[in-house]
Specification:
about 500 residues; alpha+beta; Glucose Permease (Domain IIA); 3 domains; ten-stranded antiparallel β-sheet; nine-stranded antiparallel β-sheet; 21 strands; about 25% helix; about 30% strand; elongated
């Protein structure tokens, strides 16, 4: 058989077998063909991914309008009364109504109702307290908070007089914490007010101030952020060593550490000085407070070595003043005759508290020709003082008084051409120049020997506090130069 014939026979046999296989197994053949097509399409997709990309159709934004009517909500918000918060200080001339009106309460029915509130009426007893209130746009009180006075003349006098005589136990009662009463008034749905008084505690904190005298001590105290009551304490504290009317000079410096009683960010009361130092014309005067447990008689102010700073007399009955007429011969400004002025005139606004310069007893409180309203206080060992041209008495005849206690308010009564205080000082019935009081004021006793170890231990920190506070002139001194022109030593970090 030839080669061609053999090849043809083989082809026919192969085709016959293929037909027989397709007829006998159609599913397998279909799957095989599908697999080949799938692989071919995958290869085509893989190749097509790296080829040119078709242009995408532009994005279409569908906007659907919505209709919302916010008028009812806006009207409801507008109709709702808004609230404001107001703050006011209690004034001496206040009524409940005048205080509430300053707090923007104008609702007539509430004003009538609250005028009879016992707690609000008690609030008026001590001017100066802060009152806060929430009031709505209709002038209605929503809520109110205020600190209530402790009550009583003794408590008020004690709060206003942090530095009393060192010879009395009044100086000892300065606790580390102080309680006070918080009044809360809240309006109720029925129109009534719920009144609640809670007891709060204010902790004692130490503050420090330092300043330089440019004009007056009180101006320097204001610039240093120091309360006037602390400046007054400092004047009384160093009254036996520094005459603040005549001796103070520009450039004199002071540093003071003192207590305050604070609650809710508000100073409730300024306490006593803990330590103080004043440099007057180059002379350093220092003081620390010492209160030994179990020995109240030894409590008082001493210099850092334990020497007493107590004096029998204050140098002035006023915290500050200006002498308008001194001791000696002059022409009477009212009657215009020549006379010997047996005291001194101290210019001061009407209503300034006038303090007795020493312990004693009120011998007279009334009217006198020329004097106007005046108070006479007799002191031990033949001394006496007169305070004249007053506007109001704070004591009565026969009442014992302590050094630094307020006996009256200054005024302009009697033979007077302007508001001032006429001050007289007597020794055994004879008028003496008040500017010489220091010569008649003996020193107190030093720290007893048995307490000196305790004194140095208790006063170590207050003494160190004075040294740690730099003078106010340090901040303005040029770099590398100490105050006074001295070269400052380099500081080690």
């Amino acid at each position: 058989m030839s080669l061609i014939a053999k090849t043809s026979a083989r082809l026919r046999a192969g085709l016959f077998q293929l037909r027989e296989a397709v007829e006998n197994h159609p599913g397998r053949i279909t799957a095989a063909v599908g697999s080949v097509l799938l692989l071919s399409s995958a290869t085509a997709f893989g190749l097509a991914e790296y080829g040119p990309q078709p242009q995408l159709p532009p994005a279409t934004t569908l906007t659907v309008p919505l209709s919302l009517d916010l008028t009812p909500q806006a009207q409801a918000l507008e109709d709702q009364p808004s609230s404001v918060y107001a703050t006011a200080y209690v004034q001496a001339s206040d009524t409940v109504e005048s205080l509430l009106r300053r707090l923007q309460v104008t609702d007539p029915s509430q004003l009538r109702q609250l005028a009879a509130n016992a707690d609000l009426r008690a609030l008026l007893a001590e001017p100066g307290h802060v009152v806060t209130a929430q009031v709505n746009s209709l002038g209605e009180l929503v809520s109110l908070q205020a600190r209530l006075p402790q009550g009583g003349k003794a408590a008020t006098a004690k709060a206003a007089q942090p530095l009393a005589s060192q010879n009395t136990a009044l100086t000892l009662a300065q606790p580390a914490q102080q309680t006070w009463r918080l009044l809360t008034l809240v309006s109720q749905p029925d129109g009534a007010f719920q009144s609640k008084v809670t007891q709060q505690t204010a902790q004692a904190q130490l503050r420090m101030a330092t300043g330089v005298v440019r004009s007056t001590l009180f101006a320097a105290a204001d610039a240093a952020g120091m309360p006037d009551s602390v400046a007054t304490q400092m004047v009384n504290l160093f009254a036996g060593e520094v005459n603040f009317r005549r001796d103070l000079r520009p450039g004199d410096r002071f540093t003071v550490a003192y207590r305050v009683y604070e609650a809710q960010g508000q100073v409730l009361r300024v306490g006593r000085i803990i330590s103080a130092e004043i440099i007057n014309q180059g002379h350093v005067h220092s003081a620390v407070w010492f209160s030994p447990p179990g020995d109240p008689q030894a409590a008082g102010y001493y210099n850092p070595k334990g020497g007493s700073l107590a004096r029998a007399f204050l140098l002035s009955p006023l915290p500050y003043d200006r002498i308008t007429s001194g001791w000696g011969w002059r022409t009477n400004p009212v009657m215009h005759f020549h006379e010997f002025h047996k005291g001194i005139d101290l210019a001061i606004p009407v209503g300034t508290p006038v303090k007795t310069i020493a312990d004693g007893r009120v011998a007279y409180a009334g009217w006198g020709t020329g004097y106007g309203k005046y108070v006479k206080v007799v002191h031990p060992d033949g001394f006496a003082t007169i305070y004249a041209h007053l506007s109001k008495f704070e004591v009565h005849v026969g009442e014992p008084v302590k050094q630094g206690e307020v006996v009256a308010l200054s005024g302009n009564t009697g033979w007077s051409t302007g508001p001032h205080l006429y001050f007289q000082f007597f020794v055994n019935g004879t008028p003496v120049n008040p500017l010489t009081i220091a010569h008649y004021s003996p020193k107190g006793t030093s720290v007893p020997g048995a307490l000196r170890t305790e004194f140095f231990a208790q006063t170590a920190t207050p003494r160190q506090m004075l040294a740690l506070v730099p003078g106010p002139e340090v901040a303005s001194a040029p770099a590398g130069r100490a105050p006074g022109g001295r070269t400052a030593a380099p500081q080690q970090g």
